[in-house]
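so my prof wants the structure for this chain in the tokens format not the other one, which i didnt know existed until like an hour ago. anyway here's the sequence
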Amino acid sequence: MTPTIKLIAKKANVSIATVSRALNNDTRVTSETREKVIRISDELNYKPNLIARSFVKKTSNIIGLILPGISDEFFTDIIRGVDEITYKNGYFTMVASSHGQRVLSDSLLALSNAGLVGGIILLLSSLTDEIKNILKEIKVPVILISGGKEEYGFDTVAIDNYQGAFNATEYLIKKKGFKNIAHITGPAENEDAYLRKRGFIDACKKNGVTVNKSFIVDGDFTKESGYKAFIKLYSLADKPQAIFTANDMMALGCYEAAEYLNLQIPKDIALVGFDDIFISQYLNPGLTTVRVQIEEVGRAAAMLLVDKLNGTNGKIHPLVKISTDLIVRNSC
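here's what i got, hopefully its the right format
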């Protein structure tokens, strides 16, 4: 027999309304009765019908999480972090994937207008005027995960991209003594990539290292772009001593390009990445990289949303920055 509130009420010798109040932590129920109801519901392995509860309370216990993709390790870590917090707080996470700005706006409107979700967490590479306008009209709370280029007037969680890139570059200059340092960027429109490039340039300037324009090569966060950028850099007459890539996937492409050119890392050229994806520690040599607590990004976004849904978030559009650490291995 499937356990129901009616069955719990019968076993606890209380009304169905009292069971409902007890399970929702209503202050009108005594602690003794609440403990009794919860004990019986646990014994029966009772699971509430979230959809039915949503209709009654006119709010949804489902959180919408919109990501650019779900196959990459970065995105799965975000999902784990979000789900950890939402589940602990009685919410369930529904993941939607968007591919391109047009589909992103469609996904956002579909989730917010259908009444299916109580709140939305949205991962953005950049915030366009179109998305800004949609967010202003949405009736449910929204938390952004973005690069943190600026405060947009929305609750936002961001990796401290600038400081992570600055520290990595300064390590190459101060600790390793390099002067000719190249940078492989991420996509031009991506806020994370923008701030990592800015951190690289500022660290060079602060430490008296000339930023060679030919040493800054565009990439797009893929392994293939890292491979091509490495080949381009090593074809220069004045070759770099070290490369800082805007993410680890492009660093992985650099490893393959170095092997193709019969070069040894770090003997011939040093390498530093950003993200500390799982494979970074198993490369030969292990990749020195900026570690991002990606699950913590998801947890922080989920906590902001849960606080807003519970009415306990008194801050006005906070920008929460997640710090980074430089993990030194043998690639430089």
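also thought this was worth mentioning. The radius of gyration is 25 Å.
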